[in-house]
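Summary for the steering committee. The consortium agreed at its last meeting that each partner would contribute one worked example illustrating the joint modelling workflow. Our contribution is presented below. We chose a case with several input lines so that the handling of multiple components could be demonstrated. No manual editing was applied between input and output; the record is shown as generated.
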Amino acid sequence: MESKESLSGPFVGAIDAGTTSVRFIVFEAGTDNIICYHQIEVPSIYPKEGWCEQDPIFIVNTVNECIAVACKKFTDLGGSIKDIVTIGITNQRESSVVWDRTTGLPLANAIIWLDNRTSTTVEELLETIPNSARGAKINYLRPLCGLPLSPYFSAVKLRWLRDNVTSIRKAMDNGQAMFGTIDTWLMYNLTGGKNSGVHKTDVTNASRTMLMNIETLEWDHNLLKFFGLPKSILPEICSSSEYFGTLADGVLQGTSITADLGDQQAALVGQQCFSKGQAKATYGTGCFLLYNTGTSIVNSNGLLTTVGYQLGRKATPHYALEGSVSIAGAAFNWLRDNMGIIQNTAQIEAMANSVSNDGKPLDVYFVPAFNGLYAPYWNQDARGVICGLSEETTSEHIVRATLESICFQVRDILDAMHKDCKIPLSKLMVDGGMTVNNLFLQIQSDLVGIEVVRANISETTALGAAMAAYKAVDQRYSIESSLSNTAAREPIKPLINGTERNLRYQKWKMAIDRSLNWDTSTLPQGERESFDGA
Ligand SMILES: Nc1ncnc2c1ncn2[C@@H]1O[C@H](COP(=O)(O)OP(=O)(O)O)[C@@H](O)[C@H]1O
Ligand SMILES: O=P(O)(O)OC[C@H](O)CO
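What follows is the complete predicted structure of the assembly.
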């Protein structure tokens, strides 16, 4: 926190609407210096097994409260609100809200990216693709949007809402429905909702819907047709750094919104991975590794092709390859809330460390595939398994195996990058809530065999949004050279040898085999019967 006398502007605000919590952070403009922030947890709602929702109104109210409290802290420190020159938005991606154009109110809870209710919808959509093997069908839309067919993406969730919620189907048919990912929903509400709210998104968020063409960066007629969705529900696609609208109410009334990026792309910007070949991994609820491929669109079977950022309407878009892991820190929430194995996240490091030097190889492997496996497997029927239990296994072994599971999944992604794209990575920039855990970063470096470099601040996601927002309002600001030199950070180096690393990884692959295709309930009837009889 700054002392009162050192507060001189300009400042930039950033809303970070993550899966687990939302926050509002005030940065000194053009730097990574955090002046103040406020953060509130967002509860998820689990109406049925595999479903995950959040209340869209709660998200808006929470964001408004974070803005109000952080701004109060800011003025208490001696800051002047008029010196907050602009704000940016960054958000959990893919999560989808549909609302009514007249009332401005949601027609259902937000379906969160983690939600797996649409497994059957995916199976039904796969059935509509003619004459090819399952793997080819899953990748059928990749040439258009860069993504495999999976419950993860917005279009599948929208199709489910259309098929299962009568009011949404009607609203879609009569032009009353508006759709948005969380950025769009927030921006609509912050700029006046049903009275004057703007209906916009940016290229990074749009690239996660499965409805945007990855080359033209426009909504794609063929994709809309495939999913049976009307174009009238869609927001305008903008760049990630430009004027979006103005806050209609509250303490920041009149302040402009000049950035919008999906949270993983915002972290790419916040980590200053602006050059082709640079990569970062963000470890929060999930884990997401983005590799900057420059202006080229690179295809890979296991990874996602996505827009990295487009910093200005006339700027050239930069692309990224992404490896997504759905369950990272969320596995610890499960150990805490469902298993009672830990009471809080502060215990994790000591517990995991207590079983590292007991003279025996750790032989417990945990695949936390609660809602299927994302990259590079894209197996929506995978489920969690814990292998290698013995009478001697303790809670500590499970905690350590949980940390290792996230590291092994990053190895899966790096291997896919090597295999598909011949990309050798020698260094990985890391950030996110889990990176406070030093042991975790050492294990990550050990299990992938490359250097790991922690970000200067843990709030790189919000920082990326603030940087993009400031770029839009100050022509003199050079986003590439604005922050301290990342090369000065001490890297964490691998401490185990390649033989041990590969032996451990082989065991991990055995555990993966046991988790794949576990849930047979979404398979078509005929295949289910033959599976049951096998
Ligand atoms: N010391 C720790 N060790 C391992 N995981 C941790 C630790 N502290 C927090 N986490 C995990 O980090 C996640 C929160 O990170 P954060 O970046 O705030 O998430 P998000 O952006 O998804 O809301 C939680 O799932 C939590 O379990
Ligand atoms: O909430 P996070 O930070 O885990 O990010 C969620 C991702 O954007 C989902 O794609």
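The two ends are 62 Å apart (CA to CA). The pocket of adenosine-5'-diphosphate (ligand 1) is lined by residues 18-21, 284-285, 329-330, 332-333, 345, 348-349, 432-434, 436-437, 440 (CB under 6 Å).
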